[in-house]
Amino acid sequence: MKKIYLVLMLVISLFGCTPNSGSNTSITFHETHEPKKSNAPFSDAVQVGNLYFLSGQVGMDHSTRKLVTGGIEQETKQTLENIKDVLKHHDMDMSDVVKCTVILSDINDFSAFNKVYKTYFPQKPARTTFAAKGLAVGAKIEIECVAVKN
């Protein structure tokens, strides 16, 4: 059911949000702003019109390429700082985020994650949060976003 929902949201985003339904909206796969990730098999951001689909970020300190220590709160903070960096690279900020998908490795971390999350998003973007076993690099959290550039 979640896969159907995500596909439906993507289709609506791609086709339902264009200003002129008959226009061809270009798709741009942006290169990463981090040289160490230049060989990654994904883009940090894909632009469709004025929508930016950001790939999931984890609580990795990109200067050391290691997860930050300190548990879910520190990983959440670093994850959101990483999102800020991607947005800044595209001349946006956290206020441009309209949708987040949050994956926790343990749903019991929800309250602690949410405490940090809400300090970054006072505008309250739409959000889906769920837990999954085994996130990349042993992370406790991963967040992907959709932002609108005005």
UniProtKB/TrEMBL annotation:
Q: Which InterPro entries match?
A: RidA (IPR006056), RutC-like_sf (IPR035959), YjgF/YER057c/UK114 (IPR006175)
Q: Which CDD domains match?
A: YjgF_YER057c_UK114_family
Q: Which PROSITE patterns match?
A: PROKAR_LIPOPROTEIN
Q: Which domain of life is it from?
A: Bacteria
Which Pfam families does this chain map to?
Ribonuc_L-PSP
Q: Which residues form the signal peptide?
A: 1-22
Example GO CC term: the record gives: cytosol
Key words of the record: Signal
- One annotated GO molecular function: deaminase activity
Q: Which family does it belong to?
A: Belongs to the RutC family.
What is the protein name given in its UniProt record? Answer: Reactive intermediate/imine deaminase
Organism of origin: Aquimarina amphilecti
